[in-house]
Amino acid sequence: xxxxxxxxxxxxxxxxxxxxxxxxxxxxxxxxxxxxxxxxxxxxxxxxxxxxxxxxxxxxxxxxxxxxxxxxxxxxxxxxxxxxxxxxxxxxxxxxxxxxxxxxxxxxxxxxxxxxxxxxxxxxxxxxxxxxxxxxxxxxxxxxxxxxxxxxxxxxxxxxxxxxxxxxxxxxxxxxxxxxxxxxxxxxxxxxxxxxxxxxxxxxxxxxxxxxxxxxxxx
Length: 219
Description:
With 219 residues, this protein is α/β, with parallel strands linked by helices. It contains six helices and five strands. It has a five-stranded parallel sheet, with helices on both faces. Strand 2, helix 2 and strand 3 form a beta-alpha-beta unit. The chain is globular.
């Protein structure tokens, strides 16, 4: 298949990129600027990884949507990033409303224009990472929508949607994913902060996978 990968330069989407290539799919990468505070680090990681693989990558600018995304810590610098593991009482602070549907919609449009077959994203399961647009019902609904939104049916692929992050890391080890080049931290500093929810999630996943964590954390 020819697949557009929604790509952030993070651990999950990078493993997804390698996973699809290992299955002999032709892939291109789509990165999105929606005003996230860690944009520069995401883009730098994406440039290096896609450049090393020879994967064609494009960036779409959706910063004009900023005013529609409410007060969340990823796109609004006035909202403090929650520290510690993902929890039901704080996950709303890092929820960008309907983000994955927006990103997938752009990816589907690009795939349709190129007569590609599918769009893939790195949604995964987890005890605390309960974003609504990372759940199996969402992935299934987007797959059904992609099948009827154009003259030619497309697919939305989410091969990790029932995996936890430790599973993704184990798969990445098999694929020789350069985890040290990937970026997760919401803070977007020189190094991973080690305090925000995604840093805690990343560190915990490496430990549970039994894989040495190559990430440098400030704390």
